[in-house]
Amino acid sequence: MELRRVYVEVTAKFLREGGIVPLSLIWEGRTLRVGRAETVGRVPDRLSGFLPVCYECDILGRRRRIYFEPEKKRWFVEALPE
């Protein structure tokens, strides 16, 4: 099944050591808490093969991946087609 990239608004904490910790994201108008965020590192996304920074997080009780594009300074999730 083909996925689509959905850009989302994220509130994040920028650490003095240089790391980024996502705290919440807005999905379809709802603010969702991001828990236990762990940086996986730069991994190819399944849509274009470029290398965003991947975070595995607990969102609504499930382990999910969110991605950060440092070059464009924006976040996205992968979602099923509408």
Describe the model:
- Strand 2 (20-27) and strand 3 form a beta hairpin.
- It is globular and about 40 Å long.
- It has one domain.
- It has a seven-stranded antiparallel beta sheet, with no helix packed on it.
- Helices cover 0% and strands 63% of the residues.
- With 82 residues, it is mostly beta strands.
- It contains no helices and seven strands.
What's the tally of helices? 0
> How many angstroms does the end-to-end distance come to?
12 Å
Series of secondary-structure elements, N-terminal to C-terminal: EEEEEEE
Name the strands of the widest sheet in spatial order: 3-2-1-7-6-5-4
Unreliable spans: none
β-strand number: 7
Beta-strand content estimate = over 45%
State the secondary-structure class.
mainly beta
How do you describe this structure in short?
By secondary structure, this protein is mainly β. About 0% of the residues lie in helices and about 65% in strands.
